[in-house]
């Protein structure tokens, strides 16, 4: 009976949590298109970029659903028709949503993802925005210049004298440090230090560690003059940023496809780092940051067309 009551309590708590965490799904929409984003800064920026691009190049109105949740929440929402578009990462969709074994070839992942999403979910996987956000092995810029290293393979001759600092998950996941160490024969002076992700860059700059695992588009990389070492053996699967759009809404508003397609290849990893830094480091308003970026890329201005 005690176990039964515990399970009932957990089920009730989960129901409350689900309800409280997804209020945006139930709110009314006054726009033609509902654009959502996941719950972190980069997604805030990309969601706003997608929304502004649609509004600036079509006569469609966009309702925004920022901080909707993770990949599974967004996927459930778009397949249920609660939202119309959001930005996803190919590796996440391929392994997390489709439950496929990781593939290292970006083109193969994209084509398989595009086909499966169309057939299974009636969703369009549109061309990449131009960058990926993946695990990144990062060193101090001064060390990269001193040893003239750009790749992980080149760094392995120096790591036996270095100290590593990684988050707990990266150290424990087979597709994290254990597999990486095997792929590159990566060794450190002693076992890597388990660190809070919020402290890894400070520890690197203060020379408490010499290599850390972060995200390739973290804003602090540029600000602190750090260097992302190239994964030259393509150990990490590709995590390219792609717009996911309901095919039904593309048929209803054909101009939507053209508007979104104009974003293809427009953002580099370095540019995404800078955008993240402007929001997180300089506390700039996301809408202003996106407007300035669109202007710098010549992505157009609001059309003065009667609706």
CATH architecture classification name of the largest domain: 3-Layer(aba) Sandwich
Total helical elements: 15
Structural class determined from secondary elements: alpha/beta
Largest sheet: 5 strands, mixed
Rg value: 21 Å
Fold and architecture overview:
- This protein has helices at residues 2-21, 41-57, 71-79, 90-97, 106-121, 141-147, 152-155, 168-172, 177-184, 200-205, 220-223, 247-252, 255-261, 269-280, 286-296; strands at residues 33-38, 62-69, 85-89, 123-125, 135-140, 164-166, 193-194, 211-215, 226-229, 241-246.
- With 307 residues, it is an alpha/beta fold.
- The protein folds into two domains: 19-132 and 238-296, D-Maltodextrin-Binding Protein, domain 2, CATH 3.40.190.10; 135-229, D-Maltodextrin-Binding Protein, domain 2 (3-Layer(aba) Sandwich).
- Helix 2 (41-57) links the parallel strand 1 and strand 2.
- Helix 2 packs across helix 15 (286-296) and helix 4 packs across helix 5.
- It starts with a helix and ends in an 11-residue tail after the last helix.
């Amino acid at each position: 009976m005690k176990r039964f009551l515990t399970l009932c309590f957990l089920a009730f708590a989960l129901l409350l949590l689900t309800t409280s965490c997804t209020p945006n799904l139930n709110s009314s929409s006054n726009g033609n298109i509902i654009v959502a984003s996941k719950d972190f800064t980069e997604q805030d920026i990309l969601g706003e970029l997608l929304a502004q691009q649609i509004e600036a190049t079509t006569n469609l109105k966009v309702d925004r659903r920022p901080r909707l949740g993770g990949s599974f929440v967004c996927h459930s929402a778009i397949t249920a028709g609660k939202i119309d578009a959001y930005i996803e990462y190919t590796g996440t969709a391929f392994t997390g949503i489709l439950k496929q074994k990781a593939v290292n070839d970006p083109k193969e992942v994209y084509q398989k993802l595009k086909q499966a999403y169309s057939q299974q979910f009636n969703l369009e996987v549109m061309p990449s925005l131009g960058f990926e956000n993946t695990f990144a092995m990062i060193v101090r810029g001064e060390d990269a210049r001193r040893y003239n290293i750009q790749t992980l393979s080149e760094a392995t001759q120096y790591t036996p004298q270095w100290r590593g600092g990684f988050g707990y998950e990266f150290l424990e996941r087979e597709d994290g440090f254990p597999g990486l160490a095997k792929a590159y024969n990566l060794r450190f002076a002693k076992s890597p230090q388990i660190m809070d992700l919020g402290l890894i860059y400070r520890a690197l700059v203060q020379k408490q560690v010499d290599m850390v695992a972060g995200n390739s588009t973290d804003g602090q990389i540029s600000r602190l003059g750090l260097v992302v070492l190239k994964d030259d053996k393509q150990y990490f699967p590709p995590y390219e940023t792609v717009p996911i759009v309901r095919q039904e809404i593309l048929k209803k508003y054909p101009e939507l496809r053209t508007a979104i397609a104009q974003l293809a290849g427009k953002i580099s990893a370095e540019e995404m780092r800078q955008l993240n830094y402007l929001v997180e480091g300089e506390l700039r308003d996301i809408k202003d940051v996106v407007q300035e970026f669109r202007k710098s890329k010549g992505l157009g201005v609001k059309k003065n067309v009667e609706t």
